[in-house]
Amino acid sequence: MSTVTRVYAGRLRGMQVRGPDTDVIGRVRDIVVSIRPDGRSSRALGLVVELVNNRRIFLPMLRVAAIEPGDITLVSGSVSLRAFQSRAGELTIMGDMVGSRVHTDDPEFPQLHERSLEIADVELERTRTRDWVISRVAVFGERPKFGRSPQLFIIPWANIHGVTAGGVGVSDSTAEIIAEFADMRPADVANALADLPRRQREQVAAELNDERLADILQELPDDDQAELIEALGIERAADVLEEMDPDDAADLLGELPDTKAEVLLDLMDPEESAPVRRLMSFSPDTVGALMTPEPLILSPQTTVAEALAHARNPDLPTSLASLIFVVRPPTSTPTGRYLGCVHLQKLLREPPSTLIAGILDPDLPPLYADDDQETAARYFATYNLVCGPVLDEDKHLIGAVAVDDLLDHMLPEDWRETGFRQEGNNG
């Protein structure tokens, strides 16, 4: 069955959503979009899906494998059951846009200029980067008398005006700031966020979704992280901490009073808080405090093809994707006995059916949790790596340390404020 690359929101509404096993998960009720200013591409963020129990959830567009004429198929059958809640900077097509009034300057339809037009439907198009963006808008002109059908016009999105991140015909500074941040890297958003007045910074943080806010918090200076997490409600703060990398969550909690940190840890899901607690038990200046307990860990029976598939995970930082660690089960940290590692470059040179157990580098020495930061720096310089294994005394893998986390701690405390290129040093 052919895959759809252009579709109107009205067509999507009511379509069945299926997991990869073809089981029906629910039906589409709306589409959430991020409106960008100045005619820039406005993306569809996800679908509002009504489950069989009438609960409405948000399903990110990245989870959509294909939109077909009959239904929508997901990449994975697992979905978050958290109830959908609209946020500033986000609009729904059917709920907020359809039926609203806009205007156009499309040169193809000069007769429509300076007239109020009603949005009838919104077309989405899939791009080469797999994003879905608003491409065109169907609008009604004046409704004729005597019950005749109104004339429909199809206008390019770039020629539609009156829709902002705050809504149709609405100006909302917080929503527009969030929309401006939509396609920026977390580090760049963190820099822009730090320049906002404190109250506005807190308003923006309150409206960002948990995952996005977690990514941005990890790029802020320690003091700013603590300030923002303190400004959130206690339960929301725990939710955001669950989305952060365990080592970053541990660093942030270390900036808070002990009693507040303990309350937040208790509110977190035990599976998420356990690795954070382990990291907080290490001295701040050691490798143990810098490592992540969630590197790429596989069993020796894994094939090269399977290992490469794991390394392609877009949620895995590039530094951690560069090295695959192989252990005896269990593969969750602390693991079974550590057997060795294999670099991504070596995987690319081996036949797909090869077992990774046969291509390990067992001679690469590990780091240990109580090694200091200088030892880790010498390790990376010696072996030309950006990631290294961290073992305990019994040869179990307990995590991995990445060079970016090491640099974050070795640079001066104010390096985020000064940026990667200090003023006056542009050579």
Short structural summary:
Helices cover 33% and strands 24% of the residues.
What does this protein look like?
By secondary structure, this protein is an alpha+beta fold. The protein folds into 4 domains: 6-85, PRC-barrel domain (SH3 type barrels, Roll); 94-173; 184-281, MgtE N-terminal domain-like (MgtE N-terminal fold, Alpha Horseshoe); 297-410, CBS-domain (Roll), CATH 3.10.580.10. 33% of the residues lie in helices and 24% in strands. The protein contains 18 helices and 21 strands. It has helices at residues 9-12, 93-97, 173-181, 186-194, 198-207, 210-217, 222-231, 234-243, 246-254, 258-267, 270-280, 287-290, 304-311, 318-321, 344-348, 373-383, 403-410, 415-418, and strands spanning 6-8, 16-18, 24-34, 43-51, 56-60, 64-67, 71-74, 91-92, 101-104, 117-126, 132-140, 152-156, 160-161, 163-164, 167-168, 297-298, 323-327, 338-343, 367-368, 387-391, 397-402. The strands form 5 sheets. Strands 2, 3, 4, 5, 6, 7 and 8 form a 7-stranded mixed beta sheet that branches. Strand 10 and strand 11 (132-140) form a beta hairpin. Helix 6 packs across helix 8 and helix 8 packs across helix 10 (258-267). The radius of gyration is 25 Å and the shape is globular. The mean pLDDT is 87.
